[in-house]
Amino acid sequence: MPAAPLSTVPSLPSSPSPSFRGRIGCDANSGYYAAPRRYRLHLSLSSPHSLRIAITHSLLGLEETLPIELLPAVPDMPDGGHSALLPLYEASSHRHSGPAVAPVLSDTWTGRIVNSHSAHIRHDLARHFGGDGPDRPVLHPHGAEEEIEAVEHLCQYRIDEAAQQAGQADVDEAARRTALSSLLRVLGTLEARLAHQDFVLGDRMTAADVRLWVALVQLDTVHRLHLDAAAVHRVADHPHLWTYARRLAAHPAFGCHLDLDGIARRHHARCQGLEAAGAAVQILDWAAHITDTPHAPAERHSALHLRPSGPA
Question: The GST C-terminal domain covers which part of the protein (predicted)?
Protein backbone atom coordinates (compact mmCIF):
# COMPACT_ATOMS: atom_id res chain seq x y z
CA MET A 1 0.00 0.00 0.00
CA PRO A 2 1.60 3.32 -1.06
CA ALA A 3 2.10 5.92 1.64
CA ALA A 4 -0.26 8.86 1.62
CA PRO A 5 1.39 12.04 0.32
CA LEU A 6 2.43 14.68 2.81
CA SER A 7 1.20 18.14 1.90
CA THR A 8 2.21 21.52 3.20
CA VAL A 9 -0.13 24.12 4.67
CA PRO A 10 -0.41 27.87 4.14
CA SER A 11 1.95 30.04 6.14
CA LEU A 12 0.54 31.20 9.45
CA PRO A 13 1.71 33.94 11.82
CA SER A 14 4.70 32.68 13.77
CA SER A 15 6.88 33.75 16.65
CA PRO A 16 9.48 36.50 16.11
CA SER A 17 12.28 35.47 13.78
CA PRO A 18 15.56 34.45 15.38
CA SER A 19 18.04 37.32 15.58
CA PHE A 20 21.02 35.66 13.90
CA ARG A 21 20.99 33.79 10.59
CA GLY A 22 24.64 33.23 9.67
CA ARG A 23 25.25 30.01 7.75
CA ILE A 24 28.13 27.54 7.62
CA GLY A 25 29.73 27.44 4.17
CA CYS A 26 31.89 24.93 2.34
CA ASP A 27 35.34 26.50 2.64
CA ALA A 28 37.37 29.42 4.00
CA ASN A 29 35.96 31.71 1.30
CA SER A 30 32.53 31.32 2.89
CA GLY A 31 33.44 33.19 6.10
CA TYR A 32 31.92 30.71 8.52
CA TYR A 33 33.21 27.31 7.46
CA ALA A 34 33.34 23.91 9.12
CA ALA A 35 36.38 23.42 11.34
CA PRO A 36 36.78 21.03 14.30
CA ARG A 37 36.01 22.66 17.67
CA ARG A 38 35.61 26.11 16.14
CA TYR A 39 31.92 26.28 17.04
CA ARG A 40 29.89 25.64 20.18
CA LEU A 41 26.22 24.79 20.66
CA HIS A 42 24.31 26.34 23.57
CA LEU A 43 21.21 24.26 24.25
CA SER A 44 18.43 23.95 26.81
CA LEU A 45 17.08 20.44 26.30
CA SER A 46 13.66 21.26 27.76
CA SER A 47 13.09 23.34 24.62
CA PRO A 48 11.94 21.43 21.53
CA HIS A 49 14.18 23.61 19.32
CA SER A 50 17.27 22.62 21.33
CA LEU A 51 16.18 18.99 21.63
CA ARG A 52 16.02 18.64 17.84
CA ILE A 53 19.55 20.01 17.52
CA ALA A 54 20.92 17.74 20.27
CA ILE A 55 19.47 14.64 18.57
CA THR A 56 20.92 15.69 15.20
CA HIS A 57 24.29 16.32 16.85
CA SER A 58 24.33 12.80 18.34
CA LEU A 59 23.15 11.09 15.16
CA LEU A 60 26.05 12.71 13.31
CA GLY A 61 28.59 11.74 15.98
CA LEU A 62 29.82 15.30 16.57
CA GLU A 63 30.69 14.98 20.26
CA GLU A 64 34.42 15.61 19.67
CA THR A 65 33.98 18.06 16.79
CA LEU A 66 31.38 20.50 18.10
CA PRO A 67 31.03 20.85 21.91
CA ILE A 68 27.68 21.48 23.60
CA GLU A 69 27.12 23.81 26.54
CA LEU A 70 23.95 22.82 28.40
CA LEU A 71 21.76 25.57 29.82
CA PRO A 72 19.15 25.31 32.62
CA ALA A 73 15.77 23.83 31.76
CA VAL A 74 13.99 27.01 32.90
CA PRO A 75 15.46 30.32 31.66
CA ASP A 76 16.61 32.47 34.58
CA MET A 77 15.67 35.90 33.20
CA PRO A 78 12.21 37.55 33.35
CA ASP A 79 12.11 37.96 29.55
CA GLY A 80 12.63 34.21 29.00
CA GLY A 81 16.33 34.49 28.22
CA HIS A 82 19.41 32.85 29.73
CA SER A 83 21.83 35.11 31.59
CA ALA A 84 24.69 32.80 30.53
CA LEU A 85 24.04 33.82 26.90
CA LEU A 86 23.94 37.58 27.52
CA PRO A 87 27.65 38.17 26.83
CA LEU A 88 27.34 36.38 23.48
CA TYR A 89 24.26 38.36 22.48
CA GLU A 90 25.80 41.67 23.54
CA ALA A 91 29.04 40.90 21.68
CA SER A 92 27.10 39.95 18.55
CA SER A 93 24.52 42.75 18.46
CA HIS A 94 25.19 46.25 19.81
CA ARG A 95 22.60 47.10 22.47
CA HIS A 96 20.70 43.89 21.84
CA SER A 97 17.22 44.50 23.23
CA GLY A 98 15.60 41.07 22.99
CA PRO A 99 15.90 38.00 25.22
CA ALA A 100 19.08 35.93 25.15
CA VAL A 101 17.40 32.72 24.06
CA ALA A 102 18.63 29.27 23.13
CA PRO A 103 19.45 27.52 20.89
CA VAL A 104 22.60 29.28 19.76
CA LEU A 105 25.48 28.26 17.52
CA SER A 106 28.48 30.41 18.46
CA ASP A 107 31.91 30.90 16.90
CA THR A 108 34.69 30.55 19.48
CA TRP A 109 37.18 32.27 17.13
CA THR A 110 35.23 35.54 17.10
CA GLY A 111 33.20 35.19 20.30
CA ARG A 112 30.01 35.93 18.38
CA ILE A 113 26.76 34.18 17.53
CA VAL A 114 26.53 32.57 14.11
CA ASN A 115 22.92 31.41 14.15
CA SER A 116 19.97 31.10 16.52
CA HIS A 117 17.53 29.46 14.09
CA SER A 118 16.99 25.78 14.91
CA ALA A 119 16.24 24.53 11.39
CA HIS A 120 19.27 26.31 9.91
CA ILE A 121 21.58 24.96 12.60
CA ARG A 122 20.35 21.39 12.09
CA HIS A 123 20.66 21.65 8.33
CA ASP A 124 24.22 23.04 8.51
CA LEU A 125 25.31 20.35 10.96
CA ALA A 126 24.07 17.66 8.58
CA ARG A 127 25.49 19.30 5.45
CA HIS A 128 28.90 20.43 6.64
CA PHE A 129 29.79 18.41 9.74
CA GLY A 130 28.17 15.02 9.15
CA GLY A 131 30.64 12.29 8.22
CA ASP A 132 30.23 9.27 5.96
CA GLY A 133 30.44 6.62 8.68
CA PRO A 134 28.29 3.50 8.22
CA ASP A 135 26.41 4.21 11.47
CA ARG A 136 25.57 7.80 10.59
CA PRO A 137 22.29 8.40 8.78
CA VAL A 138 22.05 10.69 5.77
CA LEU A 139 19.57 13.11 7.30
CA HIS A 140 19.03 15.12 4.13
CA PRO A 141 19.19 12.59 1.27
CA HIS A 142 19.24 13.90 -2.27
CA GLY A 143 15.77 14.56 -3.60
CA ALA A 144 14.05 14.45 -0.18
CA GLU A 145 14.19 18.14 0.77
CA GLU A 146 10.64 18.90 -0.34
CA GLU A 147 9.21 16.04 1.72
CA ILE A 148 11.33 16.97 4.74
CA GLU A 149 10.05 20.54 4.49
CA ALA A 150 6.48 19.21 4.27
CA VAL A 151 6.98 17.28 7.51
CA GLU A 152 8.40 20.44 9.14
CA HIS A 153 5.24 22.35 8.20
CA LEU A 154 2.92 19.55 9.29
CA CYS A 155 4.61 19.28 12.66
CA GLN A 156 4.59 23.03 13.28
CA TYR A 157 1.08 23.88 12.15
CA ARG A 158 -0.95 20.67 12.17
CA ILE A 159 0.54 19.02 15.28
CA ASP A 160 2.14 21.65 17.53
CA GLU A 161 -0.19 24.60 16.86
CA ALA A 162 -3.31 22.49 16.32
CA ALA A 163 -2.80 20.63 19.61
CA GLN A 164 -2.17 23.89 21.44
CA GLN A 165 -5.34 25.47 20.03
CA ALA A 166 -7.39 22.33 20.74
CA GLY A 167 -6.55 22.74 24.44
CA GLN A 168 -6.95 26.51 24.78
CA ALA A 169 -9.64 27.38 27.27
CA ASP A 170 -10.12 30.90 25.88
CA VAL A 171 -10.94 29.61 22.37
CA ASP A 172 -14.54 28.82 21.47
CA GLU A 173 -15.60 25.19 21.32
CA ALA A 174 -16.02 25.13 17.53
CA ALA A 175 -12.44 26.32 17.02
CA ARG A 176 -11.17 23.71 19.47
CA ARG A 177 -13.06 20.96 17.62
CA THR A 178 -11.68 22.14 14.29
CA ALA A 179 -8.13 22.15 15.64
CA LEU A 180 -8.53 18.67 17.13
CA SER A 181 -9.93 17.34 13.84
CA SER A 182 -6.95 18.81 11.97
CA LEU A 183 -4.55 17.19 14.44
CA LEU A 184 -6.25 13.80 14.18
CA ARG A 185 -6.24 13.87 10.37
CA VAL A 186 -2.47 14.38 10.31
CA LEU A 187 -1.90 11.68 12.92
CA GLY A 188 -4.03 9.36 10.79
CA THR A 189 -1.93 10.08 7.70
CA LEU A 190 1.26 9.36 9.63
CA GLU A 191 -0.30 6.21 11.11
CA ALA A 192 -1.01 4.89 7.61
CA ARG A 193 2.57 5.56 6.53
CA LEU A 194 4.17 3.96 9.57
CA ALA A 195 2.03 0.85 9.24
CA HIS A 196 4.10 -0.06 6.17
CA GLN A 197 7.51 1.54 6.71
CA ASP A 198 9.96 2.08 9.55
CA PHE A 199 10.43 5.84 9.16
CA VAL A 200 8.39 8.80 7.94
CA LEU A 201 9.92 8.93 4.46
CA GLY A 202 10.62 5.23 3.97
CA ASP A 203 13.06 2.66 5.29
CA ARG A 204 15.83 5.07 6.35
CA MET A 205 15.95 7.68 9.07
CA THR A 206 16.01 11.31 7.91
CA ALA A 207 15.71 14.78 9.42
CA ALA A 208 11.93 14.35 9.15
CA ASP A 209 12.06 11.70 11.90
CA VAL A 210 13.89 14.03 14.27
CA ARG A 211 11.23 16.69 13.70
CA LEU A 212 8.29 14.33 14.10
CA TRP A 213 9.65 12.56 17.19
CA VAL A 214 10.11 15.83 19.08
CA ALA A 215 6.60 16.89 18.06
CA LEU A 216 5.23 13.64 19.52
CA VAL A 217 7.19 14.21 22.73
CA GLN A 218 5.66 17.69 23.03
CA LEU A 219 2.21 16.34 22.21
CA ASP A 220 2.33 13.83 25.07
CA THR A 221 4.31 15.77 27.67
CA VAL A 222 2.93 19.31 27.12
CA HIS A 223 -0.14 19.66 24.90
CA ARG A 224 -1.90 16.59 26.31
CA LEU A 225 -2.18 18.31 29.69
CA HIS A 226 -4.73 20.76 28.28
CA LEU A 227 -6.89 18.32 26.30
CA ASP A 228 -9.91 16.48 27.64
CA ALA A 229 -9.60 12.75 28.28
CA ALA A 230 -11.67 11.74 25.25
CA ALA A 231 -9.40 13.78 22.95
CA VAL A 232 -6.27 12.19 24.42
CA HIS A 233 -7.70 8.70 23.89
CA ARG A 234 -8.32 9.59 20.23
CA VAL A 235 -4.75 10.91 19.91
CA ALA A 236 -3.41 7.71 21.50
CA ASP A 237 -5.43 5.53 19.12
CA HIS A 238 -2.64 5.44 16.52
CA PRO A 239 -0.67 2.33 17.52
CA HIS A 240 1.91 2.36 14.71
CA LEU A 241 2.70 6.03 15.33
CA TRP A 242 3.26 5.60 19.06
CA THR A 243 5.21 2.36 18.54
CA TYR A 244 7.47 4.39 16.25
CA ALA A 245 7.85 7.05 18.97
CA ARG A 246 8.67 4.37 21.55
CA ARG A 247 11.24 2.75 19.22
CA LEU A 248 13.06 6.03 18.65
CA ALA A 249 13.02 6.78 22.39
CA ALA A 250 15.13 3.63 22.81
CA HIS A 251 17.65 4.93 20.25
CA PRO A 252 20.63 6.40 22.17
CA ALA A 253 20.75 9.54 20.03
CA PHE A 254 17.15 10.33 20.98
CA GLY A 255 16.44 9.03 24.46
CA CYS A 256 19.60 10.23 26.20
CA HIS A 257 18.60 13.86 25.57
CA LEU A 258 15.03 13.57 26.84
CA ASP A 259 14.79 15.71 29.98
CA LEU A 260 11.27 14.90 31.15
CA ASP A 261 11.58 16.75 34.44
CA GLY A 262 13.00 19.80 32.66
CA ILE A 263 10.18 19.81 30.09
CA ALA A 264 7.61 19.71 32.90
CA ARG A 265 9.31 22.52 34.85
CA ARG A 266 9.69 24.70 31.77
CA HIS A 267 6.05 24.18 30.82
CA HIS A 268 4.70 24.98 34.29
CA ALA A 269 6.92 28.08 34.50
CA ARG A 270 5.53 29.46 31.22
CA CYS A 271 1.99 28.10 30.94
CA GLN A 272 -0.97 30.29 31.92
CA GLY A 273 -3.66 27.71 31.11
CA LEU A 274 -5.46 25.21 33.30
CA GLU A 275 -4.86 21.48 33.20
CA ALA A 276 -7.67 19.34 31.81
CA ALA A 277 -8.68 15.71 32.34
CA GLY A 278 -6.20 14.62 29.66
CA ALA A 279 -3.37 15.33 32.10
CA ALA A 280 -4.21 12.02 33.80
CA VAL A 281 -4.09 9.99 30.56
CA GLN A 282 -0.43 9.43 29.71
CA ILE A 283 0.14 8.05 26.20
CA LEU A 284 3.69 6.73 26.64
CA ASP A 285 5.85 6.07 29.66
CA TRP A 286 8.83 7.73 28.00
CA ALA A 287 11.30 7.06 30.80
CA ALA A 288 10.60 3.32 30.65
CA HIS A 289 11.63 3.17 26.99
CA ILE A 290 14.94 5.00 27.25
CA THR A 291 17.74 2.48 26.89
CA ASP A 292 20.84 2.82 29.05
CA THR A 293 23.72 2.67 26.59
CA PRO A 294 27.43 3.58 26.80
CA HIS A 295 28.20 7.18 25.87
CA ALA A 296 31.32 8.85 24.59
CA PRO A 297 33.28 10.76 27.28
CA ALA A 298 32.01 14.13 26.05
CA GLU A 299 28.41 12.93 26.40
CA ARG A 300 28.62 11.05 29.66
CA HIS A 301 28.09 13.97 32.03
CA SER A 302 25.05 15.32 30.19
CA ALA A 303 23.53 11.85 29.80
CA LEU A 304 23.77 11.17 33.52
CA HIS A 305 22.54 14.63 34.40
CA LEU A 306 19.54 14.45 32.09
CA ARG A 307 18.33 10.93 32.83
CA PRO A 308 14.71 11.22 34.06
CA SER A 309 14.34 10.04 37.64
CA GLY A 310 10.86 8.58 37.35
CA PRO A 311 7.86 7.94 35.12
CA ALA A 312 6.67 10.79 32.95
Answer: 141-272
